[in-house]
Recover the amino acids of this structure.
């Protein structure tokens, strides 16, 4: 009869062990990057699978978010007669926060689950074992190209999300809500700083890309080789990626945007 | 899908993404106003810099002519030492003054330069001698109350003074 | 000086977790150039044996030797060299679903050699020809049948002309014709290339037909019998006979251990 203390202790050790296991996995992944860069064709294929195929949902969401932001901010600003700042507020919201974070959440859902399922099914079908038996390092042939693909795609997608969002907000603000077009851009241009706002946004989206891709690959690689196992793994990819992104967002925002 | 096809699409995607960044930087932020414009460094000391920050703009007649690069406390004079960069093409007389102004009612603060009349111009490394500090709200309120009190005592010499009740402060 | 055993299993003990040992103190030798079959019911460690030979798992105690050298799963360099001399056929083929048939067979060549495209094409088509599927080179993996998949996997395993070929349940789930084709291929390829073949199976007739040597394992990795096929077919040992003849009940019981009938069905006054 194991007493509760032993059980808690055992569970804690398990959690620590799985963290360590994940850390080893991540280190192996990083180590495999140079080898996979030499097989650049593989990386290109993955950028296509991860980035290009996410374009539709990212662009559509970006535009939708831009529309809604413009509307909502307008209703809030009109009370203070400050609707000329609409462009500025939409821009900052997107470039600093919504662009990186929402893109990361969508990315985790679309590309993350697809990666997890793909790797999980490869494992279930013994393709990973077959490759290892043929003396091919699966980490550099299969995992690292996907990792690089994710790292490259995320910032690009986040940038596009913000850009399309701003354009969408422009359409709503100027064409629908009669905000002055000139002011929309000029106030934005005078107050948005390239390095502090856009630059930090890019850094954030890069970090989120690393997190989401690494989590997705890990979950797929470690999954049980059954249908339920793969389903469970894809769920965990989304949950863990999303929570980690939101947590990191808080940390990064605090670091980057503390009033200098 | 053929290999060539995929490569083309990926290339398009990367270009599109970079175009997005370029758009964000140029159209939606202040990169355009950076440029490769050369600048020269000038300093000024203020009793109070208020809400002035690094990267705050420097304007003259409302036009952007430079940027604040750093703010620190001068250990000898205990004044705020502001270092700013001015565009090389814009020259100010040596006796120009620098004021800390607010754009709009609640906006950001910036440095406004009013040109003087000297024949010689400010050169790199010079210091602007005439400065006016930022308006501090507490001082302003104190001044307002003081003025009101002075007004009240003037009026009370002439009889019934609604101003006395208007002040509502202790004497 | 080469011993005539390509593989030596030397007192190997192994379990996936500490509580259950799949193999206990097992010792076996597999002769060069021969087709050896390892027979046994499910769970007696046949697939585990292949994984130990291939270095995917490391024995808890004892040693596995390939051509005199210890198989050490932890030494990546050494495993890299060793695995290039081995070919493995997985149970359902384990083909790479995102590549075509041609690309699957070309995979080891592309990864391990610097051969020109022309040479790779020739070799791939030759290997596919050996298994009778040269015409299927352009197909996608989703378009091939189970039997074809096995043969393609065999062509892929043969691509680098390995010294050792391991077959994990090559006959499982095949129709009689495909089974005959597979058995024929295993034997012919072994003789023609001079390789050593290791066949894991529970298909008695096919294995007996093509093997030079047979080992019968029981759960726990215990060797029930080993020898040339004729020895096992004519054995008087009850365990061997039950397996070889396929009898439903014998030393290996039909019923999974259970409480008596009286207890389970709440019968009274009935003999259990």
């Amino acid at each position: 009869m194991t007493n509760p203390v032993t059980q808690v202790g055992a569970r804690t050790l398990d959690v620590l062990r799985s963290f360590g296991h994940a850390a080893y996995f991540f280190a192996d992944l990083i180590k495999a990057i140079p080898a996979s860069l030499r097989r650049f064709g593989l990386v290109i294929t993955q950028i296509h699978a991860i980035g290009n195929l996410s374009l539709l949902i990212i662009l559509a969401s970006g535009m939708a978010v831009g529309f809604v932001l413009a509307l909502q901010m307008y209703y809030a600003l009109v009370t203070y007669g400050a609707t000329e700042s609409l462009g500025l507020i939409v821009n900052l919201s997107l470039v600093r926060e919504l662009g990186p974070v929402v893109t990361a959440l969508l990315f985790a859902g679309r590309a993350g689950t697809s990666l997890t399922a793909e790797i999980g099914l490869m494992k279930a079908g013994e393709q990973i074992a077959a490759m290892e038996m043929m003396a091919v390092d699966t980490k550099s042939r299969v995992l690292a190209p996907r990792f690089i693909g994710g790292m490259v795609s995320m910032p690009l997608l986040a940038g596009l999300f913000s850009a399309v969002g701003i354009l969408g907000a422009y359409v709503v603000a100027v064409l629908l809500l009669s905000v002055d077009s000139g002011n929309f851009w000029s106030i934005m241009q005078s107050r948005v700083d390239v390095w502090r706002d856009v630059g930090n946004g890019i850094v954030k989206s890069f970090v989120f890309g690393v997190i989401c891709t690494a989590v997705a690959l890990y979950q797929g690689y470690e999954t049980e080789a059954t249908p339920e196992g793969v389903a469970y793994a894809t769920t965990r990819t989304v949950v863990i990626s999303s929570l980690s992104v939101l947590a990191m967002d808080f940390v990064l925002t605090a670091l980057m945007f503390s009033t200098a | 899908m053929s290999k060539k096809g995929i490569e083309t699409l990926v290339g398009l995607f990367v270009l599109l993404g970079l175009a997005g960044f370029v758009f964000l930087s140029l159209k939606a932020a202040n990169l355009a106003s950076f440029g490769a414009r050369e600048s020269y460094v000038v300093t000024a000391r203020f009793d109070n810099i208020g809400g002035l920050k690094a990267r705050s703009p420097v304007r003259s007649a409302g036009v952007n002519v430079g940027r604040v690069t750093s703010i620190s406390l001068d250990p000898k004079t205990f004044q705020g030492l502001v270092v700013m960069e001015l565009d090389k093409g814009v020259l100010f007389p040596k006796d120009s003054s620098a004021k800390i102004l607010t754009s709009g009612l609640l906006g950001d603060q910036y440095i406004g330069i009013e040109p003087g009349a000297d024949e010689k111009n400010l050169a790199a490394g010079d210091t602007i001698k005439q400065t006016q500090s930022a308006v501090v709200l507490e001082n302003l309120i104190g001044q307002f109350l003081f003025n009101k009190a002075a007004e009240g005592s003037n009026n009370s010499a002439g009889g019934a003074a609604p101003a006395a009740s208007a002040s509502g402060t202790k004497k | 000086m080469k011993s005539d055993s390509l593989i030596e299993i030397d007192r190997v003990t192994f379990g996936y977790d500490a509580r259950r040992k799949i193999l206990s103190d097992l010792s076996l030798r597999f002769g060069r150039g021969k087709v050896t079959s390892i027979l046994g019911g499910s769970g007696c460690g046949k697939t585990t044996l292949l994984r130990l030979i291939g270095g995917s798992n490391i024995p808890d105690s004892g040693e596995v030797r390939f051509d005199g050298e210890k198989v050490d799963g932890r030494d990546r360099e050494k495993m890299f060299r060793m695995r290039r001399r081995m070919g493995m056929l997985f149970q359902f083929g384990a083909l790479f679903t995102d590549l075509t048939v041609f690309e699957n067979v070309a995979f080891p060549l592309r990864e391990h050699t610097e051969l020109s495209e022309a040479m790779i094409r020739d070799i791939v088509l030759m290997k596919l020809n050996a298994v009778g599927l040269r015409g299927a080179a352009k197909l996608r993996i989703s378009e091939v049948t189970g039997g074809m998949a096995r043969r393609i996997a065999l062509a892929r395993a043969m691509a680098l002309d390995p010294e050792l070929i391991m077959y994990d349940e090559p006959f499982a789930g095949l129709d009689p014709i495909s089974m005959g084709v597979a058995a024929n291929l295993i034997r012919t390829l072994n003789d023609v290339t001079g390789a050593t073949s290791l066949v894991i199976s529970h298909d008695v007739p096919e294995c007996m037909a093509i093997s030079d040597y047979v080992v019968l394992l029981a759960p726990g990795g215990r060797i029930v019998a080993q020898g040339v096929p004729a020895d096992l077919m004519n054995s008087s040992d009850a365990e061997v006979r039950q397996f070889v003849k396929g009898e439903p009940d014998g030393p290996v019981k039909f019923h999974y251990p259970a409480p008596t009938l009286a207890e389970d069905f709440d019968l009274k006054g009935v003999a259990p």
In short: DSSP finds ten helices and no strands in chain A. Chain A touches chain B at residues 41, 44-45, 47-48, 51-52, 55, 91, 95, 152-153, 155-157, 159-160, 162-164, 166, 185, 188-194, 196-198, 202, 259-260 (CB under 8 Å). The mean pLDDT of chain A is 90. The CA atoms of residues 88 and 191 of chain A lie 7 Å apart.
